[in-house]
Design brief:
By secondary structure, the chain is an all-alpha fold. About 85% of the residues lie in helices and about 0% in strands.
């Protein structure tokens, strides 16, 4: 039951993201396929360095509110990255001949398909957890790359 509630929450979040930032979702999906090992490396760095920075900020009185905001952003980014994994799975599968039918589906429905696949993979004992961890770290690295591109476009 918890698995199903989590899936529906991710689908609802995906619907919001598709409505608010559809171009960025596609950009993240496309960027994820370029040098994925580099993205995983950056994601690991971010996964390790962010909590250390939060703890350092918590020690200082002035930095405590920043640390709480950083912790909130950290947790939100962890959760949202699952949607990015689902989008990337779908965009990858759309290119394969067996899954060409996904191109005819509405985008949110195909993202739902990707999220179901992601959740099914996460349900595999032992291996599923590791695969999901790598996928989320991969999306974190991709998010950093896309964020840097967006910032450089506005300068």
């Amino acid at each position: 039951l918890g698995w199903l509630i989590s899936l529906f929450a991710l689908i609802a979040l995906a619907a919001v993201l598709v409505g608010v930032i559809p171009k960025i979702l596609k950009q993240i999906s496309a960027e994820a396929m370029v040098k994925p090992c580099v993205k995983i490396g950056w994601g690991l760095v971010l996964l390790i360095v962010t909590p250390i920075a939060i703890v350092i900020l918590l020690v200082t009185i002035i930095g405590a509110p920043l640390a709480l905001m950083g912790l909130f952003g950290y947790l939100v980014a962890l959760y949202i990255s699952q949607v990015f994994v689902g989008v990337t799975i779908v965009e990858y599968l759309k290119e394969r001949s067996v899954f060409k039918f996904l191109q005819k589906w509405p985008w949110l429905l195909s993202i739902t398909f990707g999220l179901v696949i992601f959740k099914l993979i996460s349900a595999i004992p032992i291996i599923g957890w590791w695969l999901c961890f790598v996928a989320i770290v991969w999306m974190w690295g991709t998010l950093i790359k896309v964020k840097m591109q967006l910032i450089s476009n506005y300068r």
